[in-house]
Design goal:
Layout (H helix, E strand, L loop, with lengths): L2 H10 L4 H9 L1 H15 L8 H14 L3 H13 L4 H15 L1 H18 L2
């Protein structure tokens, strides 16, 4: 495994599927995507921490009705010790940006998973 790909895995805790697929297409493409992935998720001084980044992508996933992704991100939020209220605030922001119908569509599954994960 090349250095960029290993570092992307180290940053996130797992090898992103997109990097795996890109590498199968072309090694350089996989390396480039791994570098992009690493740059996005790297913690920087005075920047967003991992919990904040995950709250942002969770909010976006909910607002776009990407419930499957939101449920996976919820597990990461548990790891980064997000509070129940932080997640609920993110859901309310998703309702604001994506519309109340989206909120109605994603909320039942998210709330059920929150309960399962112990939020």
């Amino acid at each position: 495994m090349n250095k960029e790909i290993q570092e992307a895995k180290d940053v996130k805790g797992f090898k992103p599927r997109s990097v795996v697929y890109a590498t199968q297409i072309d090694e350089e493409f996989g390396e480039a995507l791994a570098g992009y992935y690493k740059a996005v998720w790297k913690e920087r001084e005075n920047g967003l921490n991992m919990k904040q980044k995950h709250l942002l992508v969770f909010t976006i996933a909910c607002s776009k009705l990407n419930v499957e992704s939101a449920l996976k991100i919820l597990e990461r939020l548990k790891k980064f010790e997000a509070t129940s209220q932080e997640i609920k605030d993110a859901m309310m922001i998703a309702a604001w940006t994506g519309g109340i119908q989206n909120f109605t569509d994603f909320s039942p599954k998210i709330l059920k998973e929150m309960e399962r994960l112990g939020f």
